[in-house]
Each structure stands twice: as C-alpha cells, then as structure tokens.
Amino acid sequence: MSKKDLEETKEVRLDFEKRGGLLPVIVQDIDSMEILMLGYANKAAFEETVNTGLATFWSTSRNELWTKGKTSGDYLEIREIRVDCDQDSIVYQVHRKGSGSCHTKNSKGETRTSCFYRKINQENKLDYLEGNE
After folding, report:
1. Res. 5 pLDDT band, cuts 50 70 90
2. Are the beta carbons of 112 and 104 closer than 8 angstroms?
3. What's the predicted TM-score (pTM) here?
C-alpha cells in the first residue's frame, strides 16, 4: 500500500512494526480535551482496549498488559479512538471513571487528574500547575 493509499484508506492498518511492536497512545479527556497521559499499546493491548472499552496499555516497566484503573479504580472509559495519518500513533479520548489518571498524588493525597501536572518556567525549572502541588 502506498503512503497516499495509507493516508486515505478507511481500513485500520495500525503499524505495530515501526517501533518494535509498540504504538504511542495519547490519552485525552473527551470533555475538557486535557491531555491526561502518554502510554504505549502493543497489538494485544489495543485489542483489549477495543474489546473492553477500557484503556489498556503495554507496561514498558513491568512488561505486561495494564488496564488503567484495575488497582486504583481510576478507569479510563474509551469514547473515541483516533489514528494519525500513517497509523503509527493513536489517541484514546476517554471519560474518567475515577478521580484522576496519574499514579501520583498531590500534597493532599489526591490522585492527580493528569500526568502532565508541571510546566517548565523561564528559569528552566518545574512549576506545579494549580491544584497539583
């Protein structure tokens, strides 16, 4: 299939081979459009996500399938899956079924909404976003 054909096809042809079997997955809250996290999916994780409707990833640290929320209760329910032009990265647009999506907690012990809870300031240091201290 040519690049042009791939960019225009209606067939799902996810390219799991390009990065050693893993696709980057951006997770985005479907209501706020906030980026919640970045994960990776192999073919099994993607199929599990499609079959269960829950965001499932390949844990690169544990080398196993991981459905977000199974231990924390903070499930990410799939509302839409988007695929980029050359089908080598995806976006899970989700509805959060818990208080957050990050495994870290703020100083109050609350799960952070997003894994992207800091920003780089002009002094090249990290500042916490409001509510994430």
Report:
1. confident
2. yes
3. 0.91
